[in-house]
């Protein structure tokens, strides 16, 4: 009897030990999580340039990682600040409050820039380029939850664009660094610290922008091999200031004399520069060096600047991606050496896509005249109510003048409904919505994306959506943009790579707001406090060990 009970208890102990070891195995965390946001990375760029990518960059991430090929933003407007806030917080503008890059502020009656903060100062240069903070962000981020779970975890945000650096990490963080175009160096704001760290100063002293721009921008390979792109010299590309035609070689050495070294951000060198700064940060801040998971957000802004200027089918954008592919290979190799193979997790995605250029497509898409619409709506208001009730139109949203509305004893619902009728009949408008009243004329998917993008204090009273492929008349001068609720703006790649991620591809509809809750679940910590996204079960199940 005795020996049987001994055997049983021995077996029990064994069971206990093995279950502990399973738990311990599951609880092993990556030393470093790297969020790579490629500004304006369209879904099709992965396949379009696949044959031209090297083995160590995009191809490695896609073939060895878990590729979620049907990932979308679930709101409009699809802009940079909004996208980065959604990546950080795991929720939509309705909750995180970053309702646009610039929204109309009813209190100050001025445009509010998403990360502007008059109470903070620039650290690292003499310009005003550091007067930014996450003050307007209304939800915590994954990075903040990570730090709250253990203050030994370090979190840092880096980008050429201030909003691309600040919004993914949020308030409670070890720092955010962005580019000051005036002085061509990385800076921060007094919101984060009182002086630049030594490693950042040392980096700035290298004056890399000058070294890059002095090389001019030539295509990486012979120009005749860029067969998936349009001709180099087309009327719908925009030349650099001081350049006669938008063609290679772009003589950046000469151009930078008039434009300043800040123009490095408008060339592929901006991405190389960002990677070099990130590498310095990883070393300088000892990221990924202990058992407490660190978080580094790197956003590549130059892809967006170049995309706007030359469009998604230009040789310029193809060359930018071939070069970025090399920068990514360089970064991955660095992480393998510095942090260790399989010790880091990369999440690669984007903040929005971009539209094809209407003048290139030459189809039904046209240029929408925003200024004309404002004039016509004002006239319509005068005609109907004998007063101009349009306070502002911004981001395809109409802000109604509440003071005039009250002063004239007008019925808010009636006014909105009459303006909706007007908008509905306007050429180039396909969906109209009054999101506060849950009233939308148009296709349900688009109406939902409007509701998710509506913030009660910062958005306009009415939303309108211009037809697919249409751009605002500003873009008639050339180039393209984004912001719509259509797939060319909402559909972006999402790739998980490293830290025991199993290779796979998944076509299930996935939302960008699910990324932060997925990271939280992976680490067993709380999701950001405003998160409405859900952990991505397909990705988590693919790596589950029991
Ligand atoms: Zn962007
Ligand atoms: Zn060109
Ligand atoms: Zn953009």
Please render the helix and strand layout as text.
Elements: H1 2-26, E1 32-38, H2 45-48, H3 58-64, E2 66-72, H4 80-89, H5 93-96, E3 102-105, E4 110-113, E5 122-123, H6 142-149, E6 155-159, H7 162-166, E7 176-180, E8 185-189, H8 198-205, H9 208-213, H10 252-259, H11 269-284, E9 294-300, H12 302-310, H13 315-338, E10 344-349, H14 358-361, E11 367-368, H15 370-385, E12 390-394, E13 397-400, H16 402-407, H17 412-424, E14 429-434, E15 439-441, H18 444-453, E16 462-466, E17 471-472, H19 487-490, E18 491-497, E19 504-506, E20 510-511, H20 515-523, H21 537-542
Parallel strand pairs: 1-9, 1-10, 2-19, 2-20, 6-7, 6-9, 11-17
Antiparallel strand pairs: 2-18, 3-4, 5-8, 7-8, 10-18, 12-13, 13-16, 14-15, 14-16
Helix pairs in contact: 8-11, 11-13, 12-13
Distance linking N and C termini: 34 Å
What structural class do you assign from the helix and strand content? alpha/beta
Largest β-sheet summary: 11 strands, mixed
The percent range for strand residues is 15-25%
Considering the chains and any ligands shown, give keywords for the structure.
546 residues, alpha/beta, binds zinc ion
Structure in words:
Strands 1, 2, 5, 6, 7, 8, 9, 10, 18, 19 and 20 form an eleven-stranded mixed beta sheet that branches. The chain has a five-stranded antiparallel beta sheet with strand order 12-13-16-14-15, with helices on both faces. With 546 residues, the chain is α/β, with parallel strands linked by helices. A hairpin with a 4-residue loop joins strand 7 and strand 8 (185-189). Helix 8 (198-205) runs antiparallel to helix 11 (269-284). The protein has 21 helices and 20 strands. Residues 10-26 have low confidence and may be disordered. The radius of gyration is 25 Å and the shape is globular. The longest helix is centred in the first third of the chain and has 25 residues, at 2-26. The structure holds zinc ion (3 copies). The site of one zinc ion has 8 residues, from helix 13.
